[in-house]
Amino acid sequence: METTVNQYLPSDYLPILIQFAAALGFVIFALVATHMLGPKRKSDVKGAAWESGIESVGDARTPVSYKYFMTAILFVIFDVEVIFMYPWAVNFREHASTFFLPMVIFLAILLAGFYYEIKKGILK
């Protein structure tokens, strides 16, 4: 029985490098063009900080409840879990016996974290 090994040549990566160079070139072109073509009027009024037409008053470093940040972090964590579950679901038929147990362990860890969040009252 003969096995073949796929060896990638540097020329196989040429389309990726061309696409990267084109994207980088477009970004540089857009930055330079907007800088050169845009208006260059500076004034105290234009440089002043304002929010919805209301003059800023006070310190911008007011304390914010940690629950706000915890909710945002938890959303990101549980949102990222979908990124790991999607390829598993797409390839489940071909690799069901190989992928099932690791996904069960992954979901058990996530559910344990979710249970901990509920017990701590973070979502209230």
UniProtKB/TrEMBL annotation:
<keyword id="KW-0812">Transmembrane</keyword>
<dbReference type="InterPro" id="IPR038430">
    <property type="entry name" value="NDAH_ubi_oxred_su3_sf"/>
</dbReference>
<feature type="transmembrane region" description="Helical">
    <location>
        <begin position="95"/>
        <end position="116"/>
    </location>
</feature>
<dbReference type="GO" id="GO:0005886">
    <property type="term" value="C:plasma membrane"/>
</dbReference>
<dbReference type="GO" id="GO:0008137">
    <property type="term" value="F:NADH dehydrogenase (ubiquinone) activity"/>
</dbReference>
<dbReference type="GO" id="GO:0030964">
    <property type="term" value="C:NADH dehydrogenase complex"/>
</dbReference>
<feature type="transmembrane region" description="Helical">
    <location>
        <begin position="16"/>
        <end position="37"/>
    </location>
</feature>
<keyword id="KW-0520">NAD</keyword>
<protein>
    <recommendedName>
        <fullName>NADH-quinone oxidoreductase subunit</fullName>
        <ecNumber>7.1.1.-</ecNumber>
    </recommendedName>
</protein>
<dbReference type="InterPro" id="IPR000440">
    <property type="entry name" value="NADH_UbQ/plastoQ_OxRdtase_su3"/>
</dbReference>
<dbReference type="Pfam" id="PF00507">
    <property type="entry name" value="Oxidored_q4"/>
</dbReference>
<comment type="similarity">
    <text>Belongs to the complex I subunit 3 family.</text>
</comment>
<keyword id="KW-1133">Transmembrane helix</keyword>
<keyword id="KW-1278">Translocase</keyword>
<dbReference type="GO" id="GO:0048038">
    <property type="term" value="F:quinone binding"/>
</dbReference>
<keyword id="KW-1003">Cell membrane</keyword>
<keyword id="KW-0874">Quinone</keyword>
<keyword id="KW-0472">Membrane</keyword>
<comment type="function">
    <text>NDH-1 shuttles electrons from NADH, via FMN and iron-sulfur (Fe-S) centers, to quinones in the respiratory chain.</text>
</comment>
<feature type="transmembrane region" description="Helical">
    <location>
        <begin position="68"/>
        <end position="89"/>
    </location>
</feature>
<keyword id="KW-0813">Transport</keyword>
